[in-house]
Automatic annotation (TrEMBL), chains A, B:
This is Transcription factor RFX3. The keyword Hydrolase does not apply. PROSITE patterns: RFX_DBD. InterPro entries: DNA-bd_RFX (IPR003150), RFX-like (IPR039779), RFX1-4/6/8-like_BCD (IPR057321), RFX1_trans_act (IPR007668), WH-like_DNA-bd_sf (IPR036388), WH_DNA-bd_sf (IPR036390). The lineage of its organism: Eukaryota, Metazoa, Chordata, Craniata, Vertebrata. It comes from the Eukaryota. One of its GO terms (molecular function) is RNA polymerase II cis-regulatory region sequence-specific DNA binding. Pfam families: BCD_RFX, RFX1_trans_act, RFX_DNA_binding. GO terms for cellular component: nucleus. GO terms for biological process: cell differentiation. The keyword Disulfide bond does not apply. Residues 183-258 form the RFX-type winged-helix domain. Residues 395-406 have a biased composition (Low complexity).
Amino acid sequence: MQTSETGSDTGSTVTLQTSVASQAAVPTQVVQQVPVQQQVQQVQTVQQVQHVYPAQVQYVEGSDTVYTNGAIRTTTYPYTETQMYSQNTGGNYFDTQGSSAQVTTVVSSHSMVGTGGIQMGVTGGQLISSSGGTYLIGNSMENSGHSVTHTTRASPATIEMAIETLQKSDGLSTHRSSLLNSHLQWLLDNYETAEGVSLPRSTLYNHYLRHCQEHKLDPVNAASFGKLIRSIFMGLRTRRLGTRGNSKYHYYGIRVKPDSPLNRLQEDMQYMAMRQQPMQQKQRYKPMQKVDGVADGFTGSGQQTGTSVEQTVIAQSQHHQQFLDASRALPEFGEVEISSLPDGTTFEDIKSLQSLYREHCEAILDVVVNLQFSLIEKLWQTFWRYSPSTPTDGTTITESRSESTSFPIHFHG
Amino acid sequence: MQTSETGSDTGSTVTLQTSVASQAAVPTQVVQQVPVQQQVQQVQTVQQVQHVYPAQVQYVEGSDTVYTNGAIRTTTYPYTETQMYSQNTGGNYFDTQGSSAQVTTVVSSHSMVGTGGIQMGVTGGQLISSSGGTYLIGNSMENSGHSVTHTTRASPATIEMAIETLQKSDGLSTHRSSLLNSHLQWLLDNYETAEGVSLPRSTLYNHYLRHCQEHKLDPVNAASFGKLIRSIFMGLRTRRLGTRGNSKYHYYGIRVKPDSPLNRLQEDMQYMAMRQQPMQQKQRYKPMQKVDGVADGFTGSGQQTGTSVEQTVIAQSQHHQQFLDASRALPEFGEVEISSLPDGTTFEDIKSLQSLYREHCEAILDVVVNLQFSLIEKLWQTFWRYSPSTPTDGTTITESRSESTSFPIHFHG
DNA sequence: ACAGAGTTGCCATGGCAACAACCG
DNA sequence: CGGTTGTTGCCATGGCAACTCTGT
């Protein structure tokens, strides 16, 4: 359906720039760009279809209120949720925040308002991205596993659009182009759209950083990476998943390709991370084993009637695979037990420090999970820089759980 | 014009809660609320009109694209800007981020979409808040100063709505009510809507914190405060003003009431802050003296034809008054001159430290400007906590500007 | 019924890049 | 004309509170 016009560089490049540290008000502003040579990279077009777990998708269509959510709630919740996203030519993505409440809105550059914001149609369970503005969502396949539910997003046409839109200014087709194409290619090679699954943004970004490191590419920051990936895998939605108080932002509607090397790495590392977990944490995932209607164990996807057990388990593991994250692997630190506070330091300060330390540990675990061992030192430097000697005073953070004392030592000892 | 129905507490309270530090994953979650007694606080209704500086206001009305911006650009900029805001009963505020691109959207719970999102009308230069949903913008008065351009937002009816909407759940009219009423009252007493001026959010929030401190009230956090103030002064827009790289978020469309004590404090402190500034910085504000078309010295407000000099100067001072902020008062620190870096510390690290330090200084200056001297110690603790001895190593940050070395010492010496 | 947990809306802030205006 | 600066759109993350769901 898509012609194979490749992202043939000249004249259309994304202007995502190499991350220059120009944040201070220093007026010099040197733009140091690595002169990667102009390799015109053929953007691969077809994504293989395999191991597609039928996460059920549904849509609701009202007269002038359309909810195109993968996760329709069946309640009287004031429904600000919606999370519509326009399928327009690129730039305007509607995130959770800012989407309207209860009534329409959303809109692309072609004024689709009259139709209710998003046009819909159902084809045989396949999720197609026509390049224009319509958005097709396949309905749920309720048979046994491994059906083809999605795939083949990010056709070259789409990418072309993405590039054009991201760029939006004309004649600058320099080294940025190839640099970007490389990023695009990597993303296309390793990820694919898939309904019902989500990836933590940090995981995805860490993968990206690792990729950049390996290939000596300048990474863009997380925000720009967000723009990039949304321009490729259109229709990504935002979710915040995780335990209470530890929610992390996820890209919902994307997963690691089953044949991606990232997949293998992640699995290995997951196993390692699993082994580190105290028993209590492991049981966290157990209740999801008792299979019932809901396929992926998450709120989302409303009523699902005829799923098989096998299917559910697969979807589950799929979900876990992408979902397991440092924030979950780490045990909760529990309360701090301190006899006497030395100075004017309040209990809040202690908790703050604990929180920071936990974040640090999560970061460490995260890079380890992603095999980015070289980043460990950087993380340590970042965390401890402002405390060359000891953390502020003599108080040590003692954790109530026995196994988890001085957690990162497991990794560095 | 408004009936004097007071926010008489029972049955309608805002559920903004006292800020409990439940951020860690500690499961206890004690909600400690100060049992302020149920003083039914009469919400004052009429705001005095005085010293209204005619910041010029304008509106543009298209067929189905309405730009109700205080700052219409006259260009071909893709105009995602718009910054529409719904005037609905409360909760749904449309910030810069997320508002549609180029085509309508925006929407309240009463489906005003057909009208183009925001209805407009012009009355004789007065900005009126009818409690329903329409938003009236006065046009610019092009005569001498002190005309009545705005005022009298936040009528009791509006507040009632705000309360109802913020609350949205019914029967909990407890101590929260009076606590909130106190906040409301304070906000109503000290601020008013005004077109063409803006306040840094930090300033406003600091004022609020100070207020809470003085009255032994539990402050809400900045986000919740944002909800609160937007529910009262509807139509606030978001701006990010400041020098490049130092932009701060502002509430645009609000100012300190001319008779507010905050005003006096701020002026005094500004003077002090001004005196601290090296000469070069003071000149920063000078170019605005050369009066030309633009009234308030900011981008925004497009074509203004017949303003008098007096008017401009007044608007200018008005603007400065609200706008002068620590981020501007502080001189730029300039480049760091370091002979040798000791460890693996990179130049980026130094710049990072410098940036942090500057933020620290700005914070200090900010609290001093707002006479919150008791917060200074807290700030210091916060900043130096992770560095009990010296900042990381022997390197000292030398600033290129002569007067500004060790800036905060002026305040603590 | 109540408490705890997950999810999400609304608000906050911040970085990067694009754009416009301005200045030399 | 190019470089600099202010402003803003789009993306990111995070906190609080409301809501739902689930387990006791």
